[in-house]
Amino acid sequence: MPSKSRIPARLRGIHLYPIFAGEPNWIQCERSIIPEEANGSIPVRFSFIVPQAMTQENTPTIFAAEKRAHWRALEPEIWSIQGADLDAVPTQSILTTLWDQPRWLEAYHLYDQRGSELFEQICGLPEYYLTRTENAILETHARDIIARAPVRCIVELGAGYSKKTVHLLTEQLRQRGSSIFAPIDVSAAGLRASRAAVRSAFPEIQFHGLHARYEEGFSAIDKNLPTLFVFLGSTIGNFNHSDFPRFFRTLSAAMGPGDFLLLGADRVKDVKVLEDAYNDSRGVTAEFILNVFDHINRLLHGNFARDNMRYYSRYNPEWQRIEMYAVARARQDIRFADIDAAFQWQKDEKILVEISRKFDPLRLQEQLRFFDLGAVEHFTDPREWFSVLLFKKES
Ligand code: AVI
Could you tell which of 356, 358, 359, 385 is best to mutate to test the pocket of ligand 1, judged by most ligand atoms within 8 Å of the CB? Predict the structure, then answer.
């Protein structure tokens, strides 16, 4: 129970009690309105949650001691870096890549509210085999994966909480009796959904959502806490050739000796299967890719005209990647109202909105050795369409 002096005056006399054992940074307040106060209507009881003054000791021990002071509770069991502005308008990223030759965009702009909903729909499409296949691999091999990675904490990069992670958490509890689960996500809504799902399905699990970019999140984890870092969905395929080494260099440096990485990677395969997965018959992928221009129009007061563009995708065999483009049907004079910048998007000119790299799992294992990540095990499906790779941090 917090000391009385730390309770705001307007809350005194109200029943207060800590609701989260372990990290008492939040207190739940409960109050009954007595009849006179309620103007003769029926007495009601209600509860609300207020932040309690926080001290550094309250910050969970998943954080490295030297990082702990930077993290604050955003709300119960969700942490963010003090002063971090995840909502800063990504103007510079959009403008610099649109002025590049060829023009392109960073994939994270795809995920506004509508983009996230469309991606959820993509995951259920008959042509989009990735989600189903990876889920089946995890369901089949979760027991083995967890047995080989004796950890106390599971950190998931992105995705907050997916059905796929359930298999790992179930096994972790079965084999170890308890666990910490710390998803890292820039979406607070995603973390809230994750927290609700973990609380109801796995009340024994200590949940700590990190509202941060991947690199800020995983670099804050205590290296002495045995941890399995999980990066699923083949999101690694959306990284370009400079993002890829930067990501693994930073992740490897953040891992403690004996930590593990579980990586989901889509594989090189028959071109038709790949191309159909990114050009579905219902047009959901096209909508997902072109929606980025509505998002940019809102952010930068631009004038991209959706009816004047079309979606085009293809597999590039040399780069082993699907390329997803927006193509101008007619010339468009693009302007951004608040910025002194304009360009002509010529008829048939393509803007590369997203790439999705496909991998050879053995080559990926060899490559990650150069980041001190040793291959432990390779799990795949009967068609060998998708790989889930387990690595251990060496040295
Ligand atoms: C999130 N990412 C792994 C998806 C992919 O398959 O590259 C994004 C996607 N874009 C179009 N369809 C799916």
Answer: 356
